[in-house]
Amino acid sequence: MERVSSTMDWARSYDGSSGFPHWIMARTQDRARGRRGRLWISNKESFLATLIMEPKCSPLTASQYSFVAACALYRSLKKYVSCSHLAQKWPNDVLLDGGKVAGILLESSGTGQTVDRLSIGIGVNLGSAPPNVQIANFAPIGLSDITGETIRPEIFLEVLANNFYLSEQTFKTYGFEKIREEWIGKATRLGEDITAHTSKEKYKGRFDGIDANGNLVLLTADGKRVIPSADVYF
What we know:
The protein has five helices and 13 strands. The model has no long low-confidence stretch (mean pLDDT 92). The longest helix is centred in the C-terminal third of the chain and has 22 residues, at 153-174. It has two domains: 3-184, 2-Layer Sandwich (BirA Bifunctional Protein, domain 2); 193-233, SH3 type barrels, CATH 2.30.30.100. It is an alpha+beta fold.
């Protein structure tokens, strides 16, 4: 689509007529959002899409699809830039030379302990970094800022959709542990001091990876902390 409020909004109203999984991509979003309702700023060269699925899985398994998507994003970006420029940042960002080049947002719905529908929103700065971003945990960067070339969103969608399929097959065949290993192998600041801000507290310690559920593991002065949700700074 040319212009939407956000692909995540459109995902909510998708009637399933084209089946599942189903990708929705837009050229422009007027009210895009990231985690915790934050504004997602993009430009006309950005990749803006949502993948809609019917996983029929537990909430924990649904949450782990964030790492499946992150691994697929990493695989897709390394087609255009050396791995030495890329890193995974917990919980759901991909960094390019230390700047945020891509982000992931998950929204789900279901009944009881089953997630019936899962929407995975993905934004990638394929062109230059969006201008005038004054408030951001990590300054944005664009893929073309490094490569000097801009990949068309429809081309990137083909690459990403294929890599997501491959990552999901790994997840379904071998479980989260294989995805966890792949993600940790590309994680930024592993073994270094970071700060995690939860909704209530702030923790500082050595980043010791993620556990079997995808939670952040932090070694603090008061012992090991397992943190399910937080913003990470370093």
